[in-house]
Amino acid sequence: MKQTSRNIVMIRPVNFFSNPETSESNRFQKPEQRPDCAQSAARAEFDGYVAALRATGVQVLVIEDQQPGDTPDSIFPNNWLSMHADGRVFLYPMEAPNRRRERRDSTLQRLRQDFHIESVVDLSGFEAQQQFLEGTGSIVFDHPARVAYVCRSSRSHPAVLAALLAQLGYRAELFDAVDRHGAAIYHTNVMMAVGSRLAVVCLASIRDAAQREQLCSSLRQAGKQIIDIDYRQMESFCGNVIELADADGNAVFAMSSRAWHSFSPAQQAQLQANGRVAHAPLDTIENLGGGGARCMVAENFLPEKR
């Protein structure tokens, strides 16, 4: 399976605000704005990001969230859905009850118009046991190497991970990652990203030296160059980037403008040497949602209908 996809799915929000059900474990949330202005700001940021991605040749399928707007985090579909090259779709168990409403059959029906879905593997039953695994938020995949990188948190339960990896035939690289205050980082994809040749990682967040070295060794064995970001850069969502592909298969690094401007000049040059960069302002979404450019993208590896 390829590491990058030129097709992605994004959900345009109808009632975005800072989700109180996720704030306990998501220290990246900064609920400073009132919900009535958050929606209009987030909608404008969403549309700007979509335009920036399409300008590089990434194929973006935008699906409108449905009313009633009781899904404040619907803008982050990668947590409940992953789409794979063999036609399988995986649905994931979500920690916050109001996020479980994001799993909509209508989204799958829309996908079936243009893509082949061979089967749907629904892991949401683990919610009854209070066991969660929030898609490619919890997991950062290296598909060619068949590795799943996961930092331990309340949203990444090993039993669900084992069930998923048994289906995929991947191995896990588990580790502990914490913020500058020692709290567990809620999702792996805010502290690391893995592309075809580059990996962005906040190594300082992995305080156990053996775990840190094991992670670096695994990445290097897969041929990745490591861009090490510090806590300030991680808090600016430099870890929440994603490598996509244009129509010709060339790399496109997607991120927020805040993240782009927080990379050092040398790191920016390293990214640009390996692909194009697409960025857009996502301050409202990042501050209130605690997620950013990568979280907004659900990669679509499903076979296309011709």
UniProtKB/TrEMBL annotation:
One Pfam assignment: DDAH_eukar
Any idea which GO molecular function terms this record carries?
A: hydrolase activity
Keyword line = Hydrolase
**Organism superkingdom:** Bacteria
NCBIfam families per the record?
Answer: citrull_CtlX
Q: Return the protein name.
A: Citrulline utilization hydrolase CtlX
